[in-house]
Amino acid sequence: MVSREHKRGSSLREKFHLLRSITNSHAESETSIIVDASKYIKKLKQKVEKINNETTSEQSFRESSDPNPMVTVETLEKGFMVKVTSVKNEAGMLVCVLETFEDLGLDVVEARVSCTDTFSLHAIGSSNNDDGDIMDAEAVKQAVTESIRTWSDSQA
């Protein structure tokens, strides 16, 4: 017959093992597992806060009356983070932006696109230029903006 204490201890060990696996902790002691879990929770809170801030900024963008797409470009270690948001979602805008990436010699490494009521693209482009040409964020922004403007004019 197994004692109640033994069952409770076994259950507690299982829960610590589960917590350790969820938080990707390599700690052995229960205290260290809890510390790692706390750090993991803080990272998750930061991610949630960042997503909430992005959502808030996109909502405020939607509420603005400017029909022109907003393009921002950030330089990353090996490429660029390109964000395009527009209050209008027009068929073909995504293709236009991706063709511009191709023209610039950027490979799409990761992308998030929303084309429901509005248009939102967050894409990471990695430079595949091996000829030594250095591209800057402003050049990417100008190329994407001009491409969208030209495409938009042709749709009117």
Automatic annotation (TrEMBL):
Major subcellular site: nucleus
Domain Plant bHLH transcription factor ACT-like, first and last residues per copy: 70-148
GO cellular component: nucleus
Any one GO molecular function term: sequence-specific DNA binding
InterPro entries linked to this entry: bHLH-TF_ACT-like_plant (IPR054502), TF_AMS/ICE1/BHLH6-like (IPR051358)
Location in the cell: Nucleus
Presence of keyword Kinase: no
Superkingdom as given in the UniProt entry: Eukaryota
Claim: Magnesium is one of the keywords in the record: no
Keywords attached to this entry: DNA-binding, Nucleus
Coiled coil: none
N-terminal signal peptide: none
Listed name of the protein: Helix-loop-helix DNA-binding domain superfamily
